Amino acid sequence: MSARSQNTPATRRTRRVLAAAAGLATVGALVAAMPAGAASGDRHGGHHGKPRTVDVQLLSFNDLHGNLEPPAGSSGNVSEIQPDGTVTSVPAGGVEYLATSLRTARGGNPYSVTAAAGDLVGASPLLSGLFHDEPTVEALNKLNLDVAGVGNHEFDEGAVELARLQNGGCHPVEGCFEEGKEFEGADFPYLAANVTKEKTGKPILKPYTVWRKNGVKIGFIGVTLEGTPDIVSANGIKGLKFHDEVDTINRYARELDRKGVKSIVALIHEGGSPASTAYNYDCDSPGPGDGISGPIAEIAKGITPKVDALVTGHTHQAYVCTIPDPSGKPRMVTSASSFGKLYTDTTLTYDKRTHDIVRTSVTSANHIVRRDQPKAQDMTDLIARWNKLAAPIASRPQGWISADIAGRGSTEPEKPLGNLIADAQLAGLAPADKGGAQLALMNPGGIRSDLVFKASGGEGDGVVTYGEAFTVQPFTNMMNVVDLTGAQLLTTLQQQVSGSNEASPKILQVSKGLTYTLDLTKTGAARIVVDSVKLNGAAIDPAKTYRVAMNEFLAGGGDGFAVLKEHTNKLVGASDLDVFNAYLAANSSATAPIAPPATDRITVIR
Fold first, then answer.
1. Please, which residues have CB within 8 angstroms of residue 175's CB and are 6 or more apart in sequence?
2. pLDDT digits (tens, 9 = 90+) for 435-485
3. Strand positions, DSSP E, 190-341
4. Which label site among 53, 191, 199, 381 has the fewest CB atoms less than 10 Å from its CB?
């Protein structure tokens, strides 16, 4: 047997556990802080003095997006409701602290399993994204993650790259990033039950796995949202089919049940929106599940009662709710925000006689990954090692800003950073030889962070480094300039708030000169006041042709903008990141930094 064939996830994990044994002593003092109610014990009693039940601790998180270092700006804060009803903002996140939190939580729990619900990689800061997220997979291995479901961002670089993250091997184009080291892949299984190959109909990865310990068996089924093709690049998922979440989970729950696995957890990369963004908001008020809305509320109601708990993600929200299953029994549904700012601690009481979860005993809570706790030294070392490799590129100055420019952290339809990006795209693609763009459209989901005035390293306040610009736009989407009629342009604006986007509008960020009114008192396409749509003061002519700049994701109809696929006369330009960096360099200096753009392009009626 070759050395490579012996290098299985199990053996790799064994090596890491042994190597880390000494390091775990550094958090020994923290083990005493075990979450209440998490220890195993005799809940119901059994025969001959043996306990009939044991408590299994399920630790979970989602939507890490390669945030190894603490996320900056508003993206790194968690809202917390205080006893007096006020809401405070708590700095949170960073894998050094996440590791400490999880290791502390496991203390005293002989039955502990750690799971994640997708988007662990993709749309990552430069520290991870520059190396195709190998650093994040390495960190997740060190976290002793047991199982993960795939999310839409696991498909950002395509199914072949996802398979490499699972199985290991150096990047097919860029090779090995560290001399003498081959990327080993994930120690944990990625689950993709509802993603199949069109030709064979078989899942591209394992649909489920079974966690076992001392006779306890818990099955995990992993799915991404059925709408993944609408929000990833078409090239990355060519030849794949994405199936209904409920149908898929129910199918494999029956299969697990036939195999004698009666305790089942679904890892679902789809989520909901709680009535409050505070992580400790009670979304079971006034009744079970009353405080949450969105896709997961309906999905939960359709999933077979054979499934005992749902770990969810995608919406980057925090909630712990009990939504009744189809039989009316309460069932826990959780999500731990994003970027490693929270983790969920769920206690599953396992009945050794029935091999099922005692649902009435299930408890769960989200916990902040606070930054006032000790850092995990192995994660600090990992970050330092990869930062050394990234430093020559990451620290390179690109431009200057005079204050924070909110992007991901803005809750308004029109975002200052969205305006800046759209303006950069128009400026870069307006010249005749670059496409002759007259306006630019930017999808809000492609803005992954804020630009923060305070220095993140030694570059100085106000300096935008390559690493910071990369964090804002990490996809390296190629820019397109296309022909759209005025009628198609109007339909594009209407598709922001209708069709698949009606329940959760996706408001495009527009370049300077395009103005219109968004009337939120109305519904569907009527929210766009057609007569108000103007370009440089002139009404949009439905019969006229306009040259429009956008990234390739939008040009392919992403985010529910199907009309954009009808474009003609496409010209492919530079990447979105290159266009953005060129704009920063040409339009800012240390003595004349860029100020946050005004948000006066979209007039909102509420």
1. none
2. 999 999 999 999 999 999 999 888 999 999 999 999 999 987 889 999 999
3. 190-191, 195-197, 208-213, 216-224, 240-242, 263-269, 273-274, 292-293, 309-312, 318-322, 332-336
4. 199
Cα(562)–Cα(544) distance, integer angstroms: 20
Task: Please report which helix (H) or strand (E) contains residue 149, including its range.
Answer: strand 147-149
- Residue type (1 letter), 384: A
**Across the strands, what pairs with 352?**
none
- Write the DSSP assignment of 445-493 as a string of letters: GG--S-B-SS-SSSS-TTEEEHHHHHHHS-S-PEEEEEEEEHHHHHHHH
pLDDT value of position 73: 76
Can you tell me the distance from the alpha carbon of 328 to that of 259, in angstroms, rounded to the nearest whole number? 25
Residues near 37 by Cβ (< 8 Å), separated by ≥ 6?
55, 347, 363
In sequence order, what are the residues at sequence separation of 6 or more whose Cβ sits closer than 8 angstroms to the Cβ of residue 298? Answer: none
The reported pTM is 0.80
Please count the CA atoms within 13 angstroms of the CA of 303 that sit on its side-chain side: 32
Residue 32 sits at the vertex; the CA angle it makes with 29 and 33, to the nearest 5 degrees, is 105
Between CA 115 and CA 148 the distance in angstroms is 6
Name the nearest CA neighbour of 472 among 436, 504, 506, 447: 447
CB atoms within 10 A of CB 43: 16
Look at 184-188, 299-303, 455-459 and tell me which has the smallest mean pLDDT.
Answer: 455-459
d(CA 451, CA 424): 15
In which residue are the tokens 């630009």 written?
A: 451
